[in-house]
Amino acid sequence: MSEELADARPAGTPAGRALLDDETPLLSLRGISKHFGPVQALKGIDLDLPAGKVTALVGDNGAGKSTLIKSIAGIHTIDGGEMLWNGRPVHMGGPRDASALGIETVYQDLALCDNLDIVQNMFLGREMLHDGLLLNESVMETKAKQTLSELSVTTVSSIRQLVSSLSGGQRQAVAVARAVMWDAKLVIMDEPTAALGVSQTSMVLDLIKRLSTNGIAVLLVSHNLNDVFEVADRIAVMYLGTLARTAPVGELTVNTAVELITTGTVSNSNGREY
């Protein structure tokens, strides 16, 4: 872990306890920029992600959403600006640094192995051993069951089901449970309801609500504005690599969100932009 991350929590401070007052965002982005050669993908992004809140990140294709979440997840190294975790500067040198803080990302492809069961997927790469030699199956099963139960995931008949036998909503639930099981404090969800049916979408949206109720910050990336307005507390609209506007969900409508996504501004009845 980088030196900056090691300094992010003073000695003796328990993991998961807020370092500052409740109004301090879990993660703050200040002036974040990112270039790919001559192309500037992110320009001066300022964004706060409070604990226990769902922040929706919306924007057209190419607006910079994927670049931003991959920068938070440590996949891309930022070129400028800073990230603050509980008010302390941190540096994301890679995905391990993000995971060490408690940032977990559930990408659209979910990164699940169809030929493995639910328990094996939830512990993939982090298997628990007995006497340092054999897999501790009973402990892993117990921990997997407990995590799914805490998220009220009740549609899975057996935690030993192959992932290939699960519905889209169930697969999403397993991917989220895997993230939460490792003490996630911020879960980034990339298009979690894409290609899901109505009932499966409802299941995933309920899961997102439970995450925020449990005090976990959620950064939801979605093109489905109906889903966004159903679960989000705040909406951040990206436009051509910039953050066009961030506002509580009650201050925007679907129409104003669409206008911000497509033009970067909103015109009032007098034709003025803001």
In brief, what are we looking at here?
With 274 residues, the chain is α/β, with parallel strands linked by helices. It is 31% helix and 24% strand.
Please give a structural write-up.
By secondary structure, the chain is an alpha/beta fold. It has a domain of 153 residues: Rossmann fold (3-Layer(aba) Sandwich), CATH 3.40.50. It is 31% helix and 24% strand. It contains nine helices and twelve strands. The strands form three sheets. A six-stranded mixed beta sheet has the order 6-9-10-3-11-12, with helices on both faces. A four-stranded antiparallel beta sheet has the order 2-1-4-5, with helices on one face. Strands 7-8 form a two-stranded antiparallel sheet. A hairpin with a 2-residue loop joins strand 1 and strand 2. It is globular, with a radius of gyration of 19 Å. It starts with a helix and ends in an 11-residue tail after the last helix. The relative contact order is 0.16. The N terminus and C terminus are likely disordered.
